[in-house]
Design goal:
Layout lengths: L7 H17 L10 H20 L4 H27 L5 H27 L12
Length: 129
């Protein structure tokens, strides 16, 4: 088992990705290369960036990848709202995904804060005088 597989945030990100793939199967075929594809790529990016960041040599690098993962999560939420407004997504699917996105967002935010808190801050010129 890889170390990133032990991260609860990674596990939830993969589960969220599964949900997005299931939800997008119901989006019309003419959106296969549009909204459906965009949703899937952004969802995969959440787990992928969490994975890549966890394998970086520093907590600062990991925190940066977590920020990117959070941005991808925000992208998925926006695209889900658009899909719902366009009648491509049911209210129940939106609620399921939105609730999980909120939980995932909280976990990513806590992880980023934890990583940033444990990263030594660079001293300024004034601090060294």
């Amino acid at each position: 088992m890889f170390s990133f597989e032990k991260l609860e945030v990674w596990q939830l990100a993969v589960e969220f990705c599964d949900d997005i793939y299931r939800i997008t199967r119901g989006i019309p075929a003419n959106e296969r290369f549009g909204l459906s594809s965009q949703l899937r790529r952004a969802a995969v990016s959440i787990a992928a960036n969490t994975t890549e960041g966890s394998d970086r040599g520093s907590k600062k690098d990991f925190a940066r990848f977590v920020e990117i993962a959070y941005g991808s999560l925000a992208e998925v939420v926006t695209e889900l709202k658009i899909a719902k407004r366009q009648g491509m997504l049911s209210e129940s699917d939106l609620k399921l995904a939105y609730d999980k996105a909120e939980r995932l967002g909280q976990m990513l935010s806590r992880l980023r804060s934890s990583l940033n808190a444990s990263t030594p801050q660079r001293s300024t010129l004034n601090d060294s005088q």
